[in-house]
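Duplicate of #3305? Posting structure anyway:
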């Protein structure tokens, strides 16, 4: 299984257009919004979430570009972890695809109904909650009931899931969990035996957003890295990689103590474009 990290930042990317914090103005290598591409055969690709940056991400990734026919594309579908806009808005950019299957939790599909009606006008999209990807085995773990801000009411959850994706041909296992409000029941089992865990690295500490007037991290649906690091240290089997990193997160600075702490715990902070073969 091939895995390409198309984007590794949280909503807004880094730098974020409406932010003048130290990290956004320090000239760090830019990161686009979180999105991953996976393939069992290197020919057909599936997206894990679909960021607003998807057009640029596709054009920057030769394996995802159109061809060899003038309108042939290698994309075969999209798996959404939730209904957050920074994870789904990219579907609008893919409207020329003529329709793709999209998998998401039932509650997320319900919240996305107005959005879906727009996308459906451009082709035969299908919206599913039971995941079935040829050549790969996918297990789904509900991880929280965090609703998007635009959907304060709606059906019962789960609203957010994590995915465990296995290539039966190689035994390679990827876990994709960019939005963890806690370390939920069943998560240890989900990551057991995994080769690569892409873990929520949105915020480093619980008070991180206080400096820019934002809410606390748990209210936003993200377990801070300080709470995850002890668990990572105690579970050295998989390769742990933090993704969905917010523009305020000090780990983005490679000279920071926080960055060093992540590496010391055995985790990585891979940049956009990083590729794995599992």
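Output from current build:
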């Amino acid at each position: 299984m091939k895995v390409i990290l198309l984007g590794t930042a949280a909503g807004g990317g880094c730098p974020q257009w409406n932010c003048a914090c130290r990290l956004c103005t320090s000239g760090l290598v830019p990161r686009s919004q979180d999105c991953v591409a996976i393939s069992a055969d290197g020919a057909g690709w599936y997206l894990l979430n679909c960021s607003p940056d998807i057009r640029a991400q596709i054009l920057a990734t030769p394996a995802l570009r159109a061809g060899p026919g003038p309108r042939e594309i290698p994309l075969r579908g999209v798996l959404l972890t939730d209904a957050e806009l920074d994870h789904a808005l990219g579907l609008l950019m893919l409207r020329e695809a003529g329709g793709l299957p999209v998998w998401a939790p039932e509650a997320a599909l319900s919240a996305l109904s107005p959005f879906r009606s727009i996308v459906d006008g451009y082709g035969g999209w299908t919206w599913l909650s039971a995941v079935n990807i040829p050549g790969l085995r996918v297990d789904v773990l509900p991880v929280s009931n965090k609703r998007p801000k635009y959907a304060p009411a709606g059906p019962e959850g789960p609203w957010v899931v994590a995915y465990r994706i296995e290539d039966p041909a190689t035994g390679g296992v990827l876990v994709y969990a960019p939005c963890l409000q806690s370390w939920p029941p069943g998560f240890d089992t989900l990551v057991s035996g995994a080769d690569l865990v892409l873990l929520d690295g949105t915020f480093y500490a619980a008070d991180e957003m206080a400096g820019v007037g934002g809410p606390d991290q748990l209210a936003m649906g993200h377990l801070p890295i300080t709470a995850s690091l002890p668990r990572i240290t105690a579970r050295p089997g998989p390769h742990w990689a933090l993704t969905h990193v917010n523009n305020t997160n000090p780990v983005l600075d490679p000279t920071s103590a926080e960055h060093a702490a992540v590496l010391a715990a055995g985790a990585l902070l891979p940049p956009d474009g990083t590729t794995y073969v599992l």
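Confirmed duplicate; merging threads. The first helix runs from residue 54 to 59. The chain has a mean pLDDT of 94.
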